[in-house]
């Protein structure tokens, strides 16, 4: 009787980017199992997770889109889902005093803002009541679509940033999706005003990927001090300066080859969870 | 996990109408929806067949993908199963010519997921190599009377395997509105968005996967979907 090896050996070509094209040999049966066993070996090396510099983070992002052919909307969907999931773990519905709890999601002008829009949509599905502040909207189809998706889920969009005391009164939590790992240089309005208000509020802030306004590598001692940080893909060096209660890793889509190339040493996410609690 | 019984099932016409509305009015992207469905599908597979429950030494499984959307959902499902530490192999004989779908293939290849070049008709080979087969061949848009090669042949093979079959959305070869009397017999059905009419009385394990449908649409089509718990995107029905 023919065994497993023959499945790959007899007249079958098994192709994969990692392996080679094979023909009629019994020994070639190993290729598929080799692909997976190599990965298993690599995983058993216990090392600490890598914290990325800004350039490295940008390279990884580019590779995901250019070489691995992911689309922005695919990864943004997974990133936003991770953010919403982390929020629900750190601030469960039942633990918050309002029912449904109200969340202010502040979206910046780039991809970090897009992550925020996806996060808001999932928070709504999870039973929270998000409101979005999206003062500077990029003129790209993706962001317009994400905005429409939120509007059609009855998520309200604010016309201006409320005062700090109004935020404390009206909301249980703020999601900071203003600036991400590409942030450099000076903060342009209206975000300067928004960040100074965020420094005055007492309700917790959950920052997406980088606390907005912080240097992506060095942090910012007099910047906003979020209670939660959701690092996407891998943490950036700024996270070394994070002093809040909850640091989650999200964006569970990194291909093993990419992880190995940059030696990210990502932890093993539990089961099918899309977030991993780092602290 | 909660078990729920449903009273309303979706017809073929409704499936098409809802999807059009999602894309045109709600501005969901097609790749976005396929990612949502494929991810939820993978989670449903892990609930039906947890890693620890698999009988073979390695957690292997075969994902058979058709040429249209159902196949692309299978590709995304395979990718997430890889991330969940399963060992998928893909059989994708006729690749879509749309670049939207081609991206999903590259993503799988770059995850080092092997692609078979043909499906052996010797069923014992499949039974020995894999713990289960994921059927992502034909979806609700297919007319079962017009199933061409190589799919008709593949379905004949799948009808004979002894390992469990998990069908994505609609068991391939079944009519969306009624179960097939001599079609493939999956052990597990993962309905996407809402169950189809052919799933009425399905006797195997039935999951609902995909938590994204706006409330307006649910009300408009009277879908009466059960409530997902916590942050789950899959419900066992």
From TrEMBL, chain A:
<dbReference type="Pfam" id="PF03853">
    <property type="entry name" value="YjeF_N"/>
</dbReference>
<dbReference type="GO" id="GO:0005739">
    <property type="term" value="C:mitochondrion"/>
</dbReference>
<keyword id="KW-0496">Mitochondrion</keyword>
<keyword id="KW-0809">Transit peptide</keyword>
<feature type="binding site">
    <location>
        <position position="176"/>
    </location>
    <ligand>
        <name>K(+)</name>
    </ligand>
</feature>
<keyword id="KW-0732">Signal</keyword>
<keyword id="KW-0547">Nucleotide-binding</keyword>
<feature type="binding site">
    <location>
        <position position="212"/>
    </location>
    <ligand>
        <name>K(+)</name>
    </ligand>
</feature>
<dbReference type="InterPro" id="IPR004443">
    <property type="entry name" value="YjeF_N_dom"/>
</dbReference>
<feature type="binding site">
    <location>
        <position position="112"/>
    </location>
    <ligand>
        <name>K(+)</name>
    </ligand>
</feature>
<feature type="binding site">
    <location>
        <begin position="180"/>
        <end position="186"/>
    </location>
    <ligand>
        <name>(6S)-NADPHX</name>
    </ligand>
</feature>
<keyword id="KW-0520">NAD</keyword>
<keyword id="KW-0479">Metal-binding</keyword>
<feature type="domain" description="YjeF N-terminal">
    <location>
        <begin position="57"/>
        <end position="266"/>
    </location>
</feature>
<comment type="function">
    <text>Catalyzes the epimerization of the S- and R-forms of NAD(P)HX, a damaged form of NAD(P)H that is a result of enzymatic or heat-dependent hydration. This is a prerequisite for the S-specific NAD(P)H-hydrate dehydratase to allow the repair of both epimers of NAD(P)HX.</text>
</comment>
<dbReference type="GO" id="GO:0005576">
    <property type="term" value="C:extracellular region"/>
</dbReference>
<dbReference type="GO" id="GO:0052856">
    <property type="term" value="F:NAD(P)HX epimerase activity"/>
</dbReference>
<keyword id="KW-0630">Potassium</keyword>
<feature type="binding site">
    <location>
        <begin position="111"/>
        <end position="115"/>
    </location>
    <ligand>
        <name>(6S)-NADPHX</name>
    </ligand>
</feature>
<comment type="similarity">
    <text>Belongs to the NnrE/AIBP family.</text>
</comment>
<dbReference type="GO" id="GO:0046872">
    <property type="term" value="F:metal ion binding"/>
</dbReference>
<dbReference type="InterPro" id="IPR032976">
    <property type="entry name" value="YJEFN_prot_NAXE-like"/>
</dbReference>
Automatic annotation (TrEMBL), chain B:
<protein>
    <recommendedName>
        <fullName>ApoA-I-binding protein 2</fullName>
    </recommendedName>
</protein>
<dbReference type="GO" id="GO:0005739">
    <property type="term" value="C:mitochondrion"/>
</dbReference>
<dbReference type="InterPro" id="IPR004443">
    <property type="entry name" value="YjeF_N_dom"/>
</dbReference>
<dbReference type="Pfam" id="PF03853">
    <property type="entry name" value="YjeF_N"/>
</dbReference>
<dbReference type="InterPro" id="IPR036652">
    <property type="entry name" value="YjeF_N_dom_sf"/>
</dbReference>
<dbReference type="InterPro" id="IPR032976">
    <property type="entry name" value="YJEFN_prot_NAXE-like"/>
</dbReference>
<dbReference type="GO" id="GO:0052856">
    <property type="term" value="F:NAD(P)HX epimerase activity"/>
</dbReference>
<feature type="domain" description="YjeF N-terminal">
    <location>
        <begin position="15"/>
        <end position="225"/>
    </location>
</feature>
